[in-house]
Amino acid sequence: MSQFPEGFLWGGATAANQLEGGYQEGGRGLSIADALPGGKDRFKIVSQPDFDWTIDEDKYNYPNHLGIDFYHHYKEDIALFAEMGFKCYRFSIAWSRIFPNGDEAQPNEAGLQFYDHVIDECLAQHIEPVITISHYELPLNLAKRYGGWKNHYLIEFYERFARTILTRYADKVKYWMTFNEINSAAQFPVMGQGLVPSNGGNDKRNVFQAWHNQFVASAKAVKIAHSLNKNIQVGCMILYATSYSYDANPVNQLANLHHNQDFNFFCADVQVRGEYPAYTNRLLAEYDLRFDDLETTDGELALLKEYPVDYIGFSYYMSTANETTGQTTDTVAGNLMGGVKNPFLKASEWGWQIDPTGLRIALNELYDRYQKPLFVVENGLGAVDKPDKNFHVDDDYRIDYLKQHIQAMAGAIKDGVDLMGYTPWGCIDLVSASTGEMSKRYGFIYVDLDDQGNGSLARYPKKSFYWYQAVIKNNGLEKPKPKDDQAKETIIKPLV
Fold first, then answer.
1. Is the pTM of this model over 0.90?
2. What's the first-to-final CA gap in the chain, in angstroms?
3. Which tens digits make up the pLDDT trace of 438-471?
4. Which tens digits make up the pLDDT trace of 216-231?
């Protein structure tokens, strides 16, 4: 028997701003992603006090404008996903393609028609769409004119956007998520909340107010979805990084407990449990804030309680460690957040610590806490792929990484975790969110495009394409045949 349940949703994940392109076609407006320069310094640039969302093409390169031109290649790409055997495909709808400025009364029909075609193409290939409503692509006007999600008006604009697409696709799309990696604003509010230093991003009150407004907007989306079709499931989506105390020192253990609450659980607690957790005042006090400093209403708090999410989607790439006593100063990079170097783990080319066991722990921690279905909607290895003259990539390093994480999921299912599916990130090469590079590749499919936008845009399956095809066909990792009447578990060697 497979270690994965029948109907498990194997697939892949992308985001509109990182692959679509066509950024000024079909009536689409600008998004905040269009204003993010490419390159490893993109976060340093947007963190400067004078960054005001101005697009300066003479000074910077903007790879998100082209992405991988999914806007014109979606049929070809979805056909490749179908060839791999995808059961589902997670993607996002670009808000500014539907409401170009974000605050219009009526949607852009041309934008909706594009997603009509994408969704219908998925369904024709027997691929279940899994749609993120807002994935790091706030309409630029809402950041510049309204100051991002700290402004209460954005609840109304989001509600209109969500109602438009939920109504249009209520009978075609079952799985939705409201905000991508909503908790990432704890470190970088630019992508999730549209906040930079020049419009209040350094003020934690604004970050918490923005979160509250997003929580309310998420609850409204759940309410709309359930009123349209009782079979629709709406999830939250968080960035989860399993966290360890560096040692057994109680001081570090307590620091790790608080880190877990503040980063891994806070946003999920509100969206899943429907109310602010007991530690909210302790968390706010760390920034000299009180809950009364936030603009909330009794009606909004009641809405949160009445319309929690149906499941928990999350990204998992790495784990982190907490050390507060000064024993070590060795640090590592990570997915929007780093931490203390864990001596037991190896790291990727970008310094992200690789920890498959941490995924099993994450699944257990989340399921024990919430008792709601889980969905691993991002996981993968960003690496420099070197194709041969025929553009074939032998990416055994990626296969090893994914194999170990799939094995960890199988272990969590054995532990009793209710796991819905698995959509590795960047199933086709796309522009990296953290560095704005094409050279940081995740996909099963190689796209001939470099960091400067040069290339044919042709698509080529990598070795991992055929490996993942077999995984899906087998509904999990293929086990070795029993020997001497005793089956043995596949042993995965550590990454080098």
1. yes
2. 31
3. 999 999 999 999 999 999 999 999 999 999 999 9
4. 999 999 999 999 999 9
Compute the residue count for the chain. 496
pLDDT at position 130: 98
Annotated active-site residue in 378, 437, 478, 489: 378
Give the phi and the psi of residue 69 in degrees, each rounded to 5. 60, 40
Residue 374's nearest CA partner among 233, 232, 212 is: 233
CB atoms within 10 A of CB 299: 8
Contact 326, 251 (CB under 8 A): no
Q: Rounded distance, CA 309 to CA 238, Å?
A: 12
Using the CB atoms, write b or e for 324-339: b if 16+ within 10 Å.
eeeeeeeebbbbbbbb
Cα–Cα dist 96/98, whole Å: 5
**Residue 95's closest CA among 191, 216, 205?**
191
Query: Domains in the chain, ordered, with CATH?
Result: 9-474 (3.20.20.80)
pLDDT digits (tens, 9 = 90+) for 98-123: 999 999 999 999 999 999 999 999 99
- With tokens 């009150």, the residue in question is 205
Give the distance, in angstroms, between the CA of residue 438 and the centroid of all CA atoms in the same chain: 18
Of 66, 177, 137, 94, nearest to 429 (Cα)?
A: 66
Instruction: Answer with the residue of higher pLDDT: 335 or 479.
Output: 479
**What is the Cα 464 distance to its own chain's centre?**
21
Q: Is the pLDDT of residue 479 over 80?
A: no
Report CA dihedral (114, 119, 123, 125) to the nearest 10 degrees: 60
Tokens describing residue 485: 């009447």
Task: Estimate the share of the chain in helix, then strand, then coil, as percent rounded to the nearest 5.
Answer: 40, 15, 45
Let me know if 378 is a catalytic residue.
yes
Whether pLDDT at 291 is above 80: yes
**Confidence at residue 481, expressed as pLDDT on a 0 to 100 scale:** 54
Instruction: Report the SS3 class of residue 247.
Output: coil
- Cα 359 off chain centre by: 15
User: What pLDDT, on the 0 to 100 scale, is given for residue 495?
Assistant: 32
CA distances (Å), origin 331, targets 320, 392, 479: 10, 35, 38
Cβ(241)–Cβ(318) under 8 Å? Answer: yes
